Amino acid sequence: CFVKVRRERCLMLISDENLGYDLKFDEEQRKQSAHMEIAMVRKEYRGQGLQRKMMEESEQILKEQGYHYLLGTAHPDNVASVNTFLKLQYEQVMTKEKYGGMKRSIFCKEI
Q1: For residue 49, what is the DSSP state?
Q2: Chain centroid offset of residue 96 CA
Q3: Sheet order of strands, 102-110 included
C-alpha cells in the first residue's frame, strides 16, 4: 500500500514497508511508523526545495493520521537527500545494506 502525494513537478510515496524492524522498534512503535519511500523531483525543477516541501506536506498528513515515527533511507553519497532529511530534523540512525545489498542510511524522526 502506498500513499501518493503527487504534484506537477514531484512525487512522494509512503510505503507500508517498516524500517522499524531495522531499528528494533517494538510492535506498537512499528504500527505508529511510516516509511517515507520515494521523493522524486523532475530534473528541471531540482534545487528549488521541492523535495523538502513534499516531505513537509507528507509529514503533516501522516501526523494527522496518527503516525509518530517517520522513517526513510538514502544512499550515504546522495548529498541532496541526506541533507533534506537532516534539514527536516531526522536523525541518521544507522547505515546498512538494504534492498539486495545497496548501502543505505536509515533516518528517523519522531513527531
Answers
A1: S
A2: 16
A3: 3-6, 10-15, 33-41, 69-74, 102-110, 91-98
How far CA 89 is from CA of 6, 43, 98, in Å, comes to 23, 25, 23
Please tell me the pTM assigned to this model. 0.80
Q: Provide the residue-wise pLDDT of the chain in tens; the chain has 111 residues.
A: 334 444 444 444 555 578 999 999 999 998 899 888 777 788 888 888 888 888 898 888 889 889 999 999 999 999 988 999 999 999 999 999 998 899 999 999 999
Contacts 24+ apart (CB under 8 A), 80-85: 80/46, 80/51, 81/39, 81/51, 84/39, 84/51, 84/52, 84/55
57: its cell numbers: 506536506
Q: Which helix (H) or strand (E) holds 52?
A: helix 50-64
Are the C-beta atoms of residues 104 and 82 closer than 8 Å to each other? Answer: no
* Residues 6+ away with beta carbon under 8 Å from 100: none
